[in-house]
Amino acid sequence: MAGEGNILITDESALHALLHADWSGRIEQSIAKANPLTACAKTLGGLRAFNVHHPLYGPPPISLLVGKAEDRRFAEDVICRFASVSIPEGSFFALRPNLFMATPGFVFMRMARRTSEVRLAEIGMNLCARYYVDVNTEAICSRKEFITTPSQLKSFVSSAGAMRGAQKAMSALRWVVPNSGSPYETKMKLLFCHPPARGGFGLPFAAMNFDVSAGRLQRIMGQSVYSIDMADVQRRVGMEFDGEAYHQDAGKDKQRRNELEAMGWAIFPIDKHVLQDPDASIRVAEQVAHRMGLRLRRPVTWEAKYIQLREDLGLNT
Question: Strand pairing partners for 64?
């Protein structure tokens, strides 16, 4: 493989890999110091010197990057794109000799040119999340450490000002909040907290997976810390996504929420069926806003933008 040149995994394939494995500590230690685009593989044989059908990279075709237009190669299972401008430092990290993958910052920038701003914000939140989805079992797993943060993404985008999509990427970062615990938590945050002018409900949930200490009530409650999926700390209102894997014991969930209510919190649970139902989502948003002492604003164009927001998030309309 050494004689075939470098292979650079990017775009959708790199995104799939980053979201389906625990890269904790791996990326920073393996950042490519030299630009790997200067010596790319020039033959399909070279591109296939590794397993392009590995499930980690998602369904084929696999997305690769080359440094020159004439180096692009096309096949049913391979898409080669080329970088028309110089790439920022820290765009790739090494998987093994001659095999590189795009870093979270470079993936975020690259995806800005082929997706909506809302979808890009969703990508950013999932890159900054505390979870990954196991590529074999599809189980939600906890990362040992974050692979990136909103501030790191912003720093990368700032250094890539000449790249197409930089303006959209910077705009999308306004909505990127770290510490999401699942793909549906990310969708919930963007749907319920996006501004009404953009089709959301504008609810002021600032923190995700916020830890509430039981304090002196620990002996009574039976645990010292409670984590709330989305929290308005000032008003002590929370929303939680009830995923099937983690919320199979309804009695235990109810007890936990009763204990949080005893500490002054109002908790609103939501599941996949409610999130996928446009009208049910509206009803929940109205209930939460009422508890917060707020009134939902709906501009004239809100309904159309609400439908578009849901489409961008992959939710039923």
Answer: 9, 80
